[in-house]
Amino acid sequence: MKRLGAILVAATIGLSILPIAAHAMPSVSPSASQSALAAWTATEDGTRVVYFAFGSNGYPNDWPTVGTIGRAVCKKMVHNDHVMWRCRGDAHLTQLGPGDFVVDPALSSATLQISDGDVTNSVTWHGLEDAATPYVHQHAGTDVGVQVMAMMQRRASIDGMVDGVTTSTTRGGALMQGVDFNIYPDGLRVGRSSFSVSDGVVHFRTTL
Which of 65, 127, 184, 189 is deepest in the core (most CB within 10 A)? Predict the structure, then answer.
């Protein structure tokens, strides 16, 4: 779960979303990974919703390939004539089988599908721009530990089928692959964000 948090930090920075909240015991975690992240808005029956999706695979080999696809319903709020939408949604973090999450090495595309009984949700990322670009991130502190990442990243458009609804957008997706090295102190807590993970559930919270 700590490594998932580290990857979400990197990917969400690329999407201008703040790092996730997490707890960790002291540990050192070097790894290589591929990941895809998306969050995009839509309007359904006059109500705004936010779809979100995340997939990750990597090494060491004992780290499972995981993913989630979900939908957050937004509640309209008015304050001093200013309209805001507060959006909340939860989705299970699922361990995926072979072929459920596939990323092209050039980050030109990625596919994620998650089945629950007779229902299959799926998301496809399509890489934008001519090619992936380098991304380096590092920070350190007594409250956040040490994190160093060297990645290639590429913004992406998205289309998919979520909860029986066909949806697409030309923005809001990111593809990443590379290596990261993390040292987590006891009691790690990285600030607030749109994403958090606890007890195998991904929680999505944001205000539009």
Answer: 184
Q: What is the pLDDT of residues 60-114, one digit of tens each?
A: 555 678 899 999 999 989 988 888 889 999 998 899 999 999 999 999 999 999 9
Contact yes or no for 186/67 (Cβ under 8 A) = no
**How much is the pTM?**
0.78
The span from the first CA to the last CA of the chain, in angstroms, equals 28
Rounded Cα distance between 180 and 86, Å, is 33
Are 163 and 125 spatial neighbours (Cβ–Cβ below 8 Å)? Answer: no
Torsion of CA 104, 114, 194, 147, to 10 degrees: -50
d(CA 87, CA 204): 8
The whole-angstrom separation of Cα 170 and Cα 55 is: 19
Per-residue DSSP letters for 112-143? Answer: EEEEETTEEEEEEEEE-SSS-EEEEEEEEETT
Q: How far apart are CA 197 and CA 188, in angstroms?
A: 14
Q: What is the DSSP letter of 190?
A: -
Is the confidence at residue 27, as pLDDT, over 60? Answer: no
State which amino acid sits at residue 143. D
Q: What is the pLDDT of residues 106-149, one digit of tens each?
A: 999 999 999 988 889 999 999 998 899 998 878 777 655 677 88
| Residue 112 CB neighbour total at 10 angstroms | 26
Which amino acid appears at position 106 of this protein? A
